[in-house]
Amino acid sequence: MSENHVVPLSLHLKVFAALIVLTGLTVLVAFADFGRMNDVVAITIAVTKASLVVLYFMHVRWSGKLVWVFAAAGFLWLGILLSITFADVVSRDWIPELPM
Amino acid sequence: MSHHPALAHHFEDLEQQHESATLGMWAFLITEVMFFGGLFTAYAVYRWRYPEAWLEGSHELDIGLGALNTAILIGSSLTVVLSIHAAQRGESRKIVRWLLATIGLGLAFLVVKAIEYSHKFHVGHVPGPNFASGDFVHTETQLYFGLYFAMTGMHAVHMVIGIGLFAVLLGMAMRRRFTPEHHSWLEMCGLYWHFVDIVWIFLFPLLYLLGRNQ
Amino acid sequence: MSADTKRAAAPEPNYITANYGIKSWLLTTDHKRIGLLYLISISVFFFIGGAFAVLIRMELLTPEGDLVDSETYNKLFTQHGLIMIFFFLVPSIPAVLGNFLLPIMLGAKDLAFPRINLLSWYVYTVGGLVTLYATATGGVDTGWTFYTPYSSTYANTQVMYTAVGVFITGFSSILTGLNFIVTTHKMRAPGLTWFRLPLFVWAQYATSLIMVLGTPVLAITILLVALERGLGIGIFDPKLGGDPLLFQHLFWFYSHPAVYIMILPGMGVISEVISCFARKRVFGYGFIAFSSLAIAVLGFLVWGHHMFTSGQSVYAGLVFSFLTMVVAIPSAVKVFNWIATLYKGSISFETPMLYALGFIGLFTIGGLTGIFLGTLALDVHVHDTYFVVAHFHYVMVGGMVMAYLAGIHFWWPKITGRMYPETIAKFAAVVIFIGFNLTFFPQFLLGYVGMPRRYHAYPEEFQVLNVMSTAGASILGIGYLIPMGYLVWSLWWGKVAAANPWRAKGLEWEVPSPPPTFNFDQTPVVTEEAYAYAADDSFVETEAAKPPTYPSDPKVGADS
Questions:
Q1: Residue ranges of domains in chain B, CATH in brackets
Q2: Chains touching chain B at 3 or more Cβ pairs under 8 angstroms?
Q3: What distance in Å separates the CA atoms of residue C560 and residue C558, rounded to the nearest whole number?
Q4: Superfamily of domain C30-541
Q5: Alpha carbon distance C344, C279 (integer Å)
Q6: Contact B146/C108, CB-based, under 8 Å?
Q7: Contact, C161 vs C133, CB < 8 A?
Q8: Taking the model in full, what pTM does it have?
Q9: Looking at residue C535, what is its pLDDT?
Q10: Complex ipTM, two decimals?
């Protein structure tokens, strides 16, 4: 919990290596054809990379609950913005125009 | 009561001051998430509507340069972490060294970005009245480039601000202002920089990679 | 140690007399002085915005468009809306009363980031000056909503400067919100747990959450409009396949929660005032506290009810309509709890209480007509009519401005160290209440029978109600000038205020009036819940101010 928690150097380097490997991976799988799953794979890798940065580089893994809540809140609210906007965008054309 | 020189008058102790700064920075990052969130929402809506135009647009980007910039930014995140690591151990000269590395990598990112931008200016793929719409089948491809420039442009503005912040920190580090007990400024700017890195981690696959298998 | 005896010997400097000179104000980091800077700025904007309202009401006195032409009229209502919303309502209670009171209520010496607090005022001022420049050089006619593609492509007015002004000002509210959130989390005095906080603090906290979560989306949306106008990067341009409804989604994602930014702080003021002048602990403290948070969260889920007639998906419309009903619940919870607080209280009718009671009635009307508008089918009938205008003004003017005036009067003795003149203040409160209802109630009727908003001319059968509305606006305008006059008067000639003239509970009443620069000599230790009014503690029986009490325990250190 202590804010002055010193993370060992080797851990930083491991996280860095993982991020570089994941970058390479996401470029490679971009050229493979998984149909619509390509989007899912790319986003999953991006979320994994972002999580590594947040948890280790941004120290959230060793931070108090409040920081966890704050770190999550932004993404939760972005989820609200995206999902409700899409509720409209996706269903806007479901009813065909009535003939006059 | 003994006062640490870095303790502001209205805080009880350094711990309260540091926790407040951390929380404030995270609250600020929430606003940043929402700020870029508006752009990501626009991206998602238009990509859902105009998948072909998005395919057309994404094939114009250079994956090599995008991947290079991703690696550069991840590297700069590492150097920031290393400078904080050095500060925690009181190694002043290493702080300076890692901050210089961070600034260098940040500038390298911007140089690569400038190369990409100038190429698009050259071939007329910048949205606006001079857009070379004859190059594309779909009119909506211009929307793709509009969002490409808006998103990477806002990201680049954040990079410039970040580099400016690190230049200030560099000055502070050279005057040995950071101690193992107190280096909040370093940590706060580090959080900001990591956030800018995360934005790029999403921008890279969304703009460069999706649809390249087709 | 009593502050009274000390003052008798040699007056201790307070935050106003601590130092002098224009520089000591413009470079201050004292949250109380910054609150006063904001008070002056937003008062200026209130009267500028009010002047536009005067012109609007004068034009609508007759059915013909005889005072101004339609294009000028478009600018008048746009400027009125822009200035009142972004430069008065949003910053009003948070930036003035919140700035002044929040740290004191928390037992802190200042906000967590005093320099960022000062920065927020400068950012506000710069944004305001840019907007005023746009106003002076022709103004803007898009409506305060900046709807695309009109704003991005067709409007020939100062959209660019206005957008930049609003964009800049948005950051001042982000900075204020961020400061309040951190201060509430980290700077509470020992013993001041979350459920001992005054409800004003809960309301400010919930407001700050909305400011931090919503404002950035407005910023990027307006920036995209500016990019489209300035550089031709069309994001919303229908010619390129851009979706004007996307603009509306992004805009209302902020601007609907923004109405809660404007009303929640007012609700916080009302809780304080009602409990003080009913001499009772607020009924259902937990319900009121959590309803503030519920409003902040649910407020983000209902924005589509502004788009029922825009071509939005009807299925989404159904969901938005349902969610709008849900967000009414926490607002109703508050009203019921205030009424329950009044029940069997020993009520006295000081000026703040008059405004607070006015708030409850007017906010209830405003809130209930909001349910009408949130009902999908009915909204199709009254959308873009004066019914919407009346609803909005009942909530914002009848609600927020009433609460703001309640708060200004309630804490005036604390802020300035002077009492306002009670009789004339009560008179002004009644004038404002009458003027307000005469102005806006006829607009419900006008809207319901079909008068659309934003037109400078109208059919003759609407004239009677419009004349009533304009007459009411004249009374309302005079009503607002009276407090302006006597509050300034009281700065020199008002009765000197005691530390606690209302015998109210709360940390802010335990420090001298006006408070010293760092608020507390020693960090206070809180040992009781908020609003611990004794049952038989009738206000009218005593007029003595309670001397400030400081705990003997010098233990310091923030509580979690």
A1: 16-209 (1.20.120.80)
A2: A, C
A3: 6
A4: Cytochrome c oxidase-like, subunit I domain (1.20.210.10)
A5: 10
A6: no
A7: yes
A8: 0.93
A9: 59
A10: 0.94
